[in-house]
Amino acid sequence: MSQKFILNQWSVWPPLDDNVLTEAELLSFIPKMLKRRLSPLAKTVFCAAGPCLEEGTNISTVFSSTHGELAKSFAMMEMIEAGEEISPTAFSLSVHNAIAGLFAMAYKNKIQTTVLAPGEEGIAPAFIEALGLLEEGEKEVLIVLYDEPLVEFYPATPYKLSSDSCCAIALRISKVGLGTTINFSCQKQTGDDGEQPFQVPLLVKFLSEQHNNLLVHTPRHSWSWEKQ
User: Fold this and answer.
1) Residue 198 within a domain
2) Within a domain: residue 222?
């Protein structure tokens, strides 16, 4: 498997430098009622994705998160254990596609959205899904990769399941146009570079520094990104 795509724009949050808009500025357009529903993870996603969007433009999106809003789900389980009632709104904001739904509402994006829980393959499934959408005729696709640390109740060690910080990266890609051409392929080597929370920093480093190749190992094979 080998596919080429154009990276038109990308953005990461927390930012790599101080020469960017603040969180308050990036979220200032969101109505207060909707903004109150945004968790810290959702705000991180919005701040990463917002700079990759043009106002009034609908775009197919692929969201990928290993754990999603697991912290919210765990908080509700604690409430149930304490005999408290769970509101339907709280439950609806804890499901895996909650952030994608809020994103569509905030940006008035009416084009299809896919939400993935990629497991050991990490960041690669989001690229596979996005490339499939481009092959089906979409002009551009927005990929959003995000996760926050697991709550302490879940023992991640020695497994590479959770990073120490909340992070999101967004990439707007296409088949043609201006930008960086990247070749994405599957390789035979195997290894274990961890799940998506461990792989996203590798992707950020690949995009932000003068590295032409990124090779991410998984237990079954490896995924390669190469700047052309």
Assistant:
1) no
2) no
